[in-house]
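We were asked to recover a plausible sequence for a given structure. The inputs and outputs are reproduced exactly as logged, with field labels preserved.

PROBLEM: sequence recovery
POSITIONS: 359
GIVEN STRUCTURE:
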């Protein structure tokens, strides 16, 4: 039995929401474009191959999502050497070290790299700057898969920091210095360290476009819009999700006395009352949000606080697109098709519906 199931069973008779008057629902919330792409790609592999299908690291940082894929025969591994020769393998959305990508390809099976394009951008910046002789200050969380994969692009030229104190401890570089970041950082966590780095290295190079994920920033902005009106805030998402923890921290910094991060509705406290804000990290499925709202059962309903529309779309990984096209041709379905129209269909299909279909 998984931790998620155990929590649900142990809290089955636990009630909540009797005193909740109104839910303020943040929008945007939940799945970002990178998570949408990764989930749909892994679901396609599950439906194409007999189990097991392998995935290097959790496809996204969410217990419910991982559990659903495990139920369909996906095996998550922390070392690509655990993948049998010839077996299909997907690399997670967080990005993988170059040696991991090479090792996966050497296994002889289909390799689908579901890295988020925003992470790919940072990897490219690391490669280019290090190639030009820069020392790179990288703001990221120790041990996070994205940070580990990014630092492996140029391990001799990159220096990870998380705090102002760590910036102060950096050596006095004699070469040009560049500043890059983990995409899922909180803007507040990033800005203080970035300012300290600029003060330390006045000639600092930074990319013209921020490394911080737009979806992460949007979710934080939506939360800050509703937080001042709330008696409590509920953040839906898992403890190993960086952007989810950033939302939790941000709600506390906004002055909310009661802030709860939950993996499932059963984890909600029984005494919530008044106005409750609800948001979700970028890897949390919408059905979890719906379950939380249902359990809160607000007497005055739900008010959605929308700060912007997100229409970004990341197409399936190249290896997957090429394989799908080849299968269509072999099956005789390639005649009369418009090139790329399966991508249009993929764009119209939300990952939440794909997850539901897997159950």
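RECOVERED SEQUENCE:
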């Amino acid at each position: 039995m998984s931790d998620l199931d155990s929590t649900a069973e142990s809290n089955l008779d636990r009630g909540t929401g009797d005193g909740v008057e109104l839910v303020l629902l943040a929008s945007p919330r939940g799945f970002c474009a990178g998570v949408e792409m990764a989930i749909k790609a892994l679901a396609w592999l599950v439906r194409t191959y007999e189990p097991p299908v392998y995935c290097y690291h959790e496809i996204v940082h969410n217990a419910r999502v991982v559990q659903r894929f495990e139920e369909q025969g996906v095996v998550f591994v922390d070392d690509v050497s655990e993948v049998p020769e010839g077996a299909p393998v997907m690399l997670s959305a967080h990005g993988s070290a170059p040696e991991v990508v090479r090792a996966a390809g050497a296994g002889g099976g289909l390799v689908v790299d579901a890295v988020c394009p925003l992470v790919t951008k940072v990897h490219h910046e690391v490669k280019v700057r290090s190639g030009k002789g820069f020392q790179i200050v990288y703001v990221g969380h120790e041990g996070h898969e994205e940070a580990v994969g990014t630092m492996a692009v140029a391990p001799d030229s990159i220096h990870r920091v998380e705090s102002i104190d760590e910036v102060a401890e950096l050596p006095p570089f004699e070469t040009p210095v560049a500043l890059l970041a983990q995409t899922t950082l909180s803007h507040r966590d990033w800005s203080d360290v970035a300012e300290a780095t600029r003060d330390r290295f006045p000639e600092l190079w930074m990319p013209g476009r921020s490394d911080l994920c737009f979806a992460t920033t949007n979710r934080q902005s939506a939360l800050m819009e509703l937080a001042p009106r709330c008696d409590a805030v509920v953040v839906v998402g898992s403890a190993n999700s960086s952007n989810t923890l950033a939302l939790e921290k941000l709600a506390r910094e906004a002055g909310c006395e009661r802030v709860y991060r939950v993996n499932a509705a059963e984890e909600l406290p029984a005494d919530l009352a008044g106005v409750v804000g609800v948001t979700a990290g970028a890897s949390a499925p919408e059905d979890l949000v719906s379950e939380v709202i249902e359990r809160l059962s607000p007497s005055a309903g739900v008010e959605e606080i929308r700060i912007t529309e997100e229409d970004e779309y990341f197409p399936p990984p190249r290896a997957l697109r090429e394989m799908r096209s080849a299968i269509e041709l072999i099956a005789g379905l390639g005649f009369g098709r418009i090139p790329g129209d399966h991508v249009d269909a993929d764009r119209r299909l939300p990952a939440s519906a794909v997850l539901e279909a897997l159950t």
